[in-house]
Amino acid sequence: MTDFYKELVELYAENDVVEIRGDHSHLENKFGRSLTELQEDWDFPAQKKLVQSVKKSIEMRAENLRTSTQKERIAECLNIVLHVATFKNDGETERQKKLDVVAELIELMFSEDWSEAQRTHFRYGVQLVREWKNYFISYTNGAPKVLNSKYKKVINGLVSQSTLDQRDWNNENILVDAVVETLRRRDVEGFYDRDQIEIGEDIEKEISPAAMHSFAFIQIVQPETFTQNDPNWSYEEYKTFINHNYTIVRDREIYKDCFGKRYKSMLTNKEEDQLVPPLLPFEYEPWRDRIFRSHHHKLLPTDLHECESAINSLGHQIRALQKEFFEAVPE
Q1: Whole-number Å distance between alpha carbons of 49 and 289
Q2: Does the model's pTM come out above 0.70?
Q3: Which of 97, 166, 195, 220 is least surrounded by Cβ atoms within 10 Å, i.e. has the fewest?
């Protein structure tokens, strides 16, 4: 395959799409070939189309980029990167190439007067958009029939029939599908371990990459969440996430406030004493306190429309968390 990307990115960084479209000499001078010859090359048209579409995404935000401060521009540049990454119809290969192109275009167009710390922030942001999911969702299959019956209207209203056909009402938590599918309809995709880890598997190996590489850690909290069974996967997943989050914050102090908000608990009962047993294992106490005392949590109502609204609000929180990270631009 002939790679035209480097030269195309350089050309579109210096010129607007409409200028290149209206004057073919831009392309002909850059590549030393006539436009007809370029179009006959098997690889050129598709690569040009991709670079052009990404540059148009940048141009659509031109007003924001012109009127903002430098820190605001860098944050807006990362918002553009996120926008490019969320095209539904792109395969993973095309998505990754678009991320390469948008990052290179932005750096060529705007980064000349950025500090080294600002360049590092931008590149780290691109890395997170490239590698991280929007969320990791943690749940338990404890007492699924009771939970599913309690949320029957929510499940029937928010879960697709194709998913329901695959689920066992008596043995699987289907409320989690309601959360996942509602978020997906808002273009908020995440990591969802439908089969869950089997006893004896290495949670560090299986869960750590997913929990570490997610903007938010969502945990559905029900009475069975605090079971003393060994292992308690909800607790093990939480503990693994917290340990990795601590490492990230320790190494990147500037993101402390933002990353401290990554944990999101969704409660199946508004009363703490209906969820937490009277006698709680000592090691669970910090976990309980994070849910009920020191961090924001959200109730999952049993009313269909109220529950959908709560899940949509969670999606907005995840996007707001990404925005807050983008805006944590250093000097």
Answers
A1: 52
A2: yes
A3: 195
